[in-house]
User: Which sequence fits this backbone?
């Protein structure tokens, strides 16, 4: 089976055994790229023991200090969640997510993000994803062990790779990466400040968070990000030409 450019990203994993078990699950399903964001203990003997034959995946794992660093260079990003629905995020079933991840991985590295065992992913971390993956489970006890969740997602990816996976769309630009999106958000916030466009809600603190979620759901490609930043720059230039005050 040909290699696939999909990163498995584990955020703030507290138990080293889960890291090893996740590496084993990945190797079972022909995934190789493991990235660890601020693990509590790694490397660790228990991680090596639980890897059980996947020592190469474990040895090649990258340890980074932030989720943004883990996602650098990626296009499509999916994050795992226990939520059935969310008013801000697109939530998709794991079986639906697998072929989409594979198709996007033809164009640029894709990523699946898993949160800490007890707390999962924060809202700020979820905002870096284009969609959230839900693994169906009994309503009586829907909490999955971290390594088990990795195994189920990896299995669906492996299963989908056995079917006809669509290649890249002709002449399609790759999705904008995390760094490009962060620059767009910073530019957006700067222009909103310059034109004095404020959050009119009672708390007055949610405007940029909602804009971020809106644009993440839109799954912008690099050309679209450039278009939006060009529009923002034109707004700034027009204000200055008309005598608008510099920020």
Assistant:
């Amino acid at each position: 089976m040909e290699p696939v450019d999909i990163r498995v990203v584990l955020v703030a994993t507290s138990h080293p055994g889960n890291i090893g078990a996740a590496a084993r699950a990945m190797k079972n399903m022909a995934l190789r790229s493991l990235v660890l964001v601020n693990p509590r203990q790694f490397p660790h003997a228990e991680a090596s023991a639980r890897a059980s034959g996947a020592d190469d995946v474990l040895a090649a794992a990258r340890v980074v200090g932030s989720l943004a660093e883990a996602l650098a260079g990626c296009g499509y990003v999916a994050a795992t969640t226990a939520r059935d629905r969310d008013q801000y995020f697109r939530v998709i079933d794991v079986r639906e997510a697998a072929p989409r991840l594979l198709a996007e991985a033809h164009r640029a590295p894709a990523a699946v993000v898993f949160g800490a065992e007890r707390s999962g992913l924060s809202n700020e971390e979820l905002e870096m994803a284009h969609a959230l993956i839900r693994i169906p489970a009994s309503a009586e006890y829907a909490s999955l062990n971290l390594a088990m969740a990795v195994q189920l997602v990896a299995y669906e990816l492996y299963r989908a790779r056995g079917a006809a996976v669509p290649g890249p769309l002709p002449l399609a630009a790759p999705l904008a990466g995390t760094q490009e999106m962060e620059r767009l958000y910073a530019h957006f916030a700067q222009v909103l400040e310059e034109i004095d466009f404020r959050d009119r809600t009672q708390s007055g603190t949610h405007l940029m968070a909602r804009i971020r979620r809106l644009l993440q759901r839109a799954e912008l490609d690099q050309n679209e990000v450039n278009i939006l930043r060009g529009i923002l720059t034109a707004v700034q230039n027009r204000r200055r030409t008309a005598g608008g005050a510099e920020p």
Observations:
- The two ends are 55 Å apart (CA to CA).
